[in-house]
Amino acid sequence: MDVLNQQPSDQERTLAGIAHLLILASIYGVLLSIVIWWRERERSRYVAFQAAQAMLYQFAVYVLSILLAFAAIAVVWLPFIWVGPPVPDVSPEGEVFTAVRIFTFVFVLVITIGIVMMALLLSLAAIGYAVYGSVRCFQGRPFQYLLIGPVAERLVPPVPPSGGSEPAAL
């Protein structure tokens, strides 16, 4: 797409870079990226494309994070709840912990910590990729997310017939 080959102005580079950095603003970053895309979609194809990528990427990251959280609950904690908590068995002889319940508790705890660590690493990787995109935009160099870029291209208005990137004056 020709948007990737344009030489953007300083203001365009700044807005595009900020759109990618908004991943650090949690879900508000998605909303602010939408605002940047909406405001710039008729003014600057470069900013509109980068903001569209940023909003789609950030939205995908948050949806995947939520799905991972629910998957962790379903896979780890629901069977644990079904087996029962590691409470002592009450018998006439007194309280005795069963080895199975202790093992189950330790296993679930280790798996939960592993899932939390994996989620943290995935979040850091997602943020790192967005920061990389932001740096590329600040430098005025082309950047396109692997799977998101082609989808974002559809959100950018086509090139005017004159071949310029700015809309014609009335």
Automatic annotation (TrEMBL):
It comes from Thermorudis peleae. It is found in: Membrane. Its main location: membrane. The chain crosses the membrane at residues 15-38, 59-82, 102-132. Pfam families: MamF_MmsF. InterPro entries: MamF_MmsF. It is a multi-pass membrane protein. It comes from the Bacteria. Keywords: Membrane, Transmembrane, Transmembrane helix. The keyword Membrane applies. This is DUF4870 domain-containing protein.
